Structure formats: structure tokens, C-alpha cells
Amino acid sequence: MIKCHLSELMGKKKLKIADLARETGLHRNTITLLYKEEAARVELETMEKLCIYFDCTVGELFEFIND
User: Fold this and answer.
1) Spacing of C-alpha 38 from chain mean position
2) Digits of tens for pLDDT over the chain (67 positions)?
3) How far is CA 7 from CA 41, 59, in A?
4) Which positions ≥6 away from 2 have C-beta within 8 Å?
5) Which domains occur in the chain, in start order?
6) What CA–CA distance (Å, rounded) separates 20 from 27?
7) Residue 50 and residue 67: Cα distance in Å, rounded?
8) Are 61 and 35 in contact, with CB atoms under 8 Å apart?
């Protein structure tokens, strides 16, 4: 299972989905799916924009959990 830490990163900065969408240019639906960990796939460009915005690595944004 892949866990997305977007909600934690957003919480630290007290960001709303609309704020992150405006700042990154990502679609609100994309952010919502990642926030709720319901996304089936993630584009590399999306990961890149989020990593740049939060100044983090892909490993800090996503985590593999072996069930």
C-alpha cells in the first residue's frame, strides 16, 4: 500500500485545498484525491510540483507500507 502524507504536509502549513491548488496550479480534484488517499495514480509532474512546493522528497510525500 502507498500512503500519501499530503494531508500532514498541508496541516503543518495550515493550507486548504483551494490554497494549494492556487499556489501550485494543480487541479482541486487531484489534490482532493491525494489528500483523502483515494488517488489511483499520480502524474510525475504532480509529484514534482508538490515536492517543490513543500520542499520535500518523494519519500517524504509518499510511503510504501508492506501489508
Assistant:
1) 11
2) 999 999 999 999 999 999 999 999 999 999 999 999 999 999 999 999 999 999 999 999 999 999 8
3) 17, 15
4) 62, 63, 64, 65
5) 2-64 (1.10.260.40)
6) 9
7) 26
8) no
